[in-house]
Amino acid sequence: MTNQIVVFGATGYTGGLVIDALLRRGVRPVLAGRGAERLAKLAEQLGGLEYRVADVDDPASVRALVGAGDVLVTTVGPFEQFGHPVARAAVDAGAHYVDSTGEVGFVRALRQRHDARARAAGAIIAPAFGYDYVPGILAGALAARAAGAAVRAMEVGYFAIGSLRNGLSQGTRKTMAEGLILPAPVWRHGRLVDEITARQVREFPVRAARKKAFLVSGTEVLFLPAQLPELDSVTVYNGWFPQLSRVIQLVSTLANTTVRLPYGRNLVEALAARTVGGSGGPDAAERARTLSHVVAVARDASGETVAEVHLEGPSPYSLTGELMAWATHELACGAGKTPGVVGPVDAFGLDELVTGCAAAGLVQV
Fold first, then answer.
1. Under DSSP, is residue 124 helix (H, G, I), strand (E, B) or coil?
2. Which range, of 180-189, 237-246, 272-281, averages the lowest pLDDT?
3. For the chain, which domains are there?
4. I need a labelling partner for 253 at 20 to 30 A (CA). Which of 65, 71, 128, 177 fits?
5. Ranges for the Saccharopine dehydrogenase NADP binding domain (predicted)?
6. Ramachandran class of 128: left when φ > 0, alpha when ψ lies in -120 to 50, beta otherwise
7. Can you state the percent helix, strand and coil of the chain, rounding each to 5?
């Protein structure tokens, strides 16, 4: 491997998980962020890694992090606020790019702004390459392959085995709270349609039970139809708290009604901010108490189930660190397949993605 890997957001919670996973692979990344003192301390703790100071408020400093063929990894969110200068820096440099975003609107914007230039530069831009939303895309692709020509609709559900009550990071809590008043795009009749988050609640089979989940956004609605043009419908659901799915549906309805009133958005945003909590995320012991479970249900034109795929792996945070490290290493070694702003299957190939996810602990069950 001759191309360098730069982790932007190295001193943050998710950045630390990615760095740890890279080091376990024998890769010594360059650390990057805006706090020189914290970077220097972390670099020393990790055996004298190289580090560089960069800030999204100074786009030239971010652009200076990478050159053509390098890999720029970023965990700095919210991505709508801080992510665009980083992605633009990668495309300008002809560098590959991997991020941890869960913000579908940000990914849509990346495709619109940078896909053509990234393809021309031979750069692979792989957003949302963690628990959000690699498992659902992989499960959907495998279900479609099993269903064959009959598949017309795909429903993806995300679940946790074990409690997440004390196991959510600040970033996740913030994304979930703010997401209630953001649209949940779905793929319907060959185009993206914005729905209200949690408008729909449905049940999925999970192990020996049936669990409720509510409608959310996910990049499955962007990337699965690109791979599988026969799909007429793609929807994504969150079942982390199955017993609360109907309650969350009611809260979402009230929040989306309130934001249309004078000063309503300010009120909802203030209430959402109170749920965010402290910084950081669950430690290794807490993460070990939870497994990820993702199910994809493929249906034919009549709505009958024609295939069902279940994947299970480590906690969402551990899985994110491992998946991002795997993708980053593969790109640095020249193993990427399709340039542009692409999903994980186009970036690496389905069979290769299966192998990479298995190495991260995510396997079919």
1. strand
2. 272-281
3. 5-129+318-364 (3.40.50.720), 134-315 (3.30.360.10)
4. 128
5. 5-104
6. left
7. 45, 25, 35
